[in-house]
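The pair is quoted verbatim below.
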Amino acid sequence: YLNAWRIAAVKAALGDPARDGDTVLSLATDAGYNSLSVFNRAFKAAEGCTPTAFRAARQASPVASRLKAIDTPRLD
């Protein structure tokens, strides 16, 4: 459960234009990961792509980002 929550938090941050300047490492550590490699493996297992590819896909398709955001659980 905790891993799913952390991945969801990073997915939301990766899709947030205000966080475009943040590195994947900073987003991962904000979510509670201590290792980028562990985070990358967990993210890829959950989402089927790397966090960098996920961010690039969202930036390339703003409409898809908004639609996907509907599926992303709110964490606040």
